[in-house]
Amino acid sequence: MNQQRHTLAALRVSRWVYGGAFLLPLIIMCVVFFELKITPFGHRNLLFSDMGAQYIPILENLRHTILNGQFHLFSFSLGTGSGILPLLTYYVISPFNLLIFPFSAAHLPTAITWIIILKISTIGLSMAVFLRHAFLRSGWSMLLFSTAFSLCGFVAMYFYDMMWLDALIWLPLVALGLHRIVSRHRYGLYTVSLTATIICNYYLGYMTCLFSVMYFIYLIIEHQPNPTPFKDVWHMHLAAIRQFMIGSLLAGGMSMIVLIPTAMGMLLTGKNAMFVANFLPTPLFGPEVMAQFGPLAGNYQSHLYHAPSVFMGTLMFLLLIVYFVSPRIRAVEKRRTMWLLITMGLSLFVTLFNTIWHMFQQPAGFPFRNVFFFTFLVLTTAYRAWQTRPAQTMNDPQKVLALVWGMGLLAIGFLSAQVIPRIWARFLPSYNNDLYLHSQPQFHLLWLALGLLLLNTMLLFISEWRPIRIGLLGLLLSVELGSNFYTGTQGINFGSQTKFEKSFKQDAAILNKIHANQAKANLHRIDYQHSEIGQAYSGAYNHYNDPIMFDYPGVSLYSSTLMEQSRVFQHDLGYFSANVRRISTQGYTHLTDTLLGVKYRLNAGNPHPVTKLSAYAGIGFAVPKAMTDLQLNDQSAFYNQQRVLNALGAERDTLDPVTVKSVATRRAKVAEVNSIPDKTYIPGPRYLQTFTVRINATGLLHGYSPSNTLVYSSLRVNGKSAKPMINADGYRYIFRLGQFTRGQTLKISYITQEPAAGYSNQFVSLNQTRYASLVTQLKQNRFKLRKNSGVSWLSGDVNGTKQKSMLYLAIPKTPGWSATVNGRPVKIQSAMHARSVVPIIRNYDGMIALPLQRGKNHVTLTYQTPGLKAGALISAASFIIFAFLWVTVEWRRPLAKRTDDQKKERHF
């Protein structure tokens, strides 16, 4: 009876502790966001970095399409069109995102704030559950460790990449499931939690799988009281190993509904290139990493590259040292734990291992994304040290030794931070080494770290364990974690919630004038470069994802799931692309408007913001067979456009070069150089080059620099600035110089560092009369969509002729599309072929082309997400197997055993 009362009391304490584990991080986060004036606690919001550029637009698209019944597995809001499932699985598959639906679009940033707060609080709760059941202890001291994990350095540095927070929620449950496999041979919790991790975020789910293998091996070895050969350990734990393998396979199988279609989609991106340097056994940091155990060591200004964010509170760092000093912990246990931490540390330290952990790619910004696994292992080690009651079990020399070790390691870290990064930046100059040098903590923070270490040592080693001592430790830890999170936001340009609400409504009103976000039969694209929503961002906002945010068909995208094929195709035609994750609307011409089906160009700053484009000839039209044989070349935009015009049958000189009358070059003046943005790095001498040209055709004048030696931000035409809206310095794209008439003489000037290469710069006019004639001809064989067309199922009619025997559709030729012409299946061909030369030479398909018969043709196109059916079947089969095994092995068998034991007890 007494044992039962103790058990019930422990359960009641656990419930209160679970509540505290959730509420304590919630309170800390509310206080931090209140101080930062983040909505709903102030007028600012999280419109910065990936949060403002990707998460909020994507979540708003998801909210809008579902609430309005317009959700499809293919979206024309993703660049020129793409399957949406890889985007969702990469960014938004999380049960917490259901909170976006009660909020309006204008108040979505407020929903994001609450989602982040609740996720961080849930991390604390799941960590408390792990500590309670893995170590069979309950008490208020668990809050120290659960809160340390929920607000660790990884969270403080990357909370705005909120898709990663789900992995921290599930990790303690995955680890608890591994404990249950080893101790009770039950794999249900492990399988369910690992499946949830992979589905919520397959990227960190992959890392969790690697961690699970490593942690499981540690557990079966740690289960032996004495050193035992691994062969004997294998035989003794054969049942647990079998359960681990079955559980892992079932988790992978149940995740296939996400993994297969996502993998097939990600293979179409430009992030699958391999670089030899990423697979070398080189070090990524040195002893300066020890400084990261001190508070305030990192902030947003260093988010592109910095040392691993291992901060979790000074108390936890001290307890980690206590673990290896304490006489209550056996030497064999210390060795096993040490090797576990070293193994995990090597995955951060060695480039080869770090690349493998990051899915065989080095991160582009936000490095060491696997550091929270190391944090988790350190916290479990610290909790083991806490359970030994070090104040009572360690003598004074041992306590002093722990303090000296802690102070020494911190001192080594901060001293090394002032020396080693400078050596690397000097003798191995690189972009990352330069960023790493400027990410190091200031040396004066060492005194703060040492003071906190001394204070925690005094509180930890007090012999009487009263609640007030734990309360003081908890208060100190909360202040440390909250302050570290607060200072981690230094350098962030928060957005304005007030401006966001106003601007969103203004842009939505303009788009509603042309019914931009309604499913219509006459599918067309919209170019909205000058939207008002950019006013809500304090930092640079380049409008890449406006089409996603406002759910209209566009031509731009910023996403890790951007199809490389579409990006290269647009780039070859002259569009600006900074890297494999971005394609901009900047770089358009009348020809690209026609090829991509752009019908409207919007500008919120104009009295009449809507401009209907005369270059629009429909989403598709009949073209000559020559379009399917056309090969575009990289870094030759005007050459490509001329070849396209020839293939379409345009008149000669539709694209007409200017006549260069003279070229003048001189050293640039200081005032002229100062007009260039600070981010544009131009080493060496700079020159001002001026072209005097005569216009040979009335129409839009464009320029292109094949040598890429022109600083666009310094462009001037007749003395007036012609710089682009988005800073594109250092990249090739077609720039627009304005509308001019034949016979005009212009002076085009710009700054360059290689004036000799400037003679290859090209300036051409698109003859508006001749081009209008070409568009009129294309409209005569326009593809007319029927009213029953949607997004992933298109149906329409087009007339084919002897000269125009192919239907060109402004939809990328990607896997998933199937087509019929006059009821018969046809093979989809590629209209034009794109080419990239960086980082490797590779050809890509262009847009969809279908063979036509003479006369009227009825064409249908259907899209199905590649791999979705196969993934769904495998997931369903795996779930059925898991449910069957769970009922028969994990539920009925233990139940039958308990019933049999009770019968034997009654009989006895």
Task: Produce a short descriptive summary.
With 908 residues, the chain is an alpha+beta fold. 48% of the residues lie in helices and 15% in strands.
How would you characterize the overall build of this protein?
- The protein is α+β, with helices and mostly antiparallel strands and 908 residues long.
- It is 48% helix and 15% strand.
- It has 30 helices and 27 strands.
- The protein has a five-stranded antiparallel β-sheet, with no helix packed on it. A five-stranded antiparallel β-sheet has the order 20-21-27-23-24, with no helix packed on it.
- Strand 25 (829-836) and strand 26 (842-851) form a beta hairpin.
- Helix 3 (85-91) crosses helix 12 (256-266).
- The longest helix is centred in the last third of the chain and has 40 residues, at 868-907.
- Residues 1-8 have low confidence and may be disordered.
Question: What's the SSE blueprint?
Answer:
Blueprint: H1 2-36, E1 44-45, H2 49-67, E2 74-75, E3 82-83, H3 85-91, H4 108-134, H5 142-150, H6 153-158, H7 165-184, H8 188-200, H9 202-222, H10 230-236, H11 238-254, H12 256-266, H13 314-325, H14 331-349, H15 351-357, H16 371-387, H17 390-393, H18 396-417, H19 420-427, H20 431-438, H21 445-460, H22 467-488, E4 495-496, H23 497-513, E5 525-530, H24 546-550, E6 557-558, H25 564-572, E7 582-583, H26 590-596, E8 598-603, E9 610-612, E10 620-623, H27 637-648, E11 655-657, E12 659-667, H28 670-674, E13 687-694, E14 699-704, E15 711-717, E16 720-721, E17 735-740, E18 745-752, E19 762-767, H29 768-780, E20 784-785, E21 793-800, E22 806-812, E23 817-821, E24 824-826, E25 829-836, E26 842-851, E27 855-863, H30 868-907
Parallel strand pairs: 5-8
Antiparallel strand pairs: 1-4, 2-3, 6-7, 8-9, 10-22, 11-19, 12-13, 13-18, 14-17, 14-19, 15-16, 15-18, 20-21, 21-27, 22-26, 23-24, 23-27, 25-26
Helix pairs in contact: 1-4, 1-5, 1-22, 3-12, 4-5, 4-7, 5-16, 5-22, 7-8, 7-9, 7-11, 8-9, 8-11, 9-14, 11-30, 12-30, 13-16, 13-18, 14-15, 14-16, 18-21, 19-20
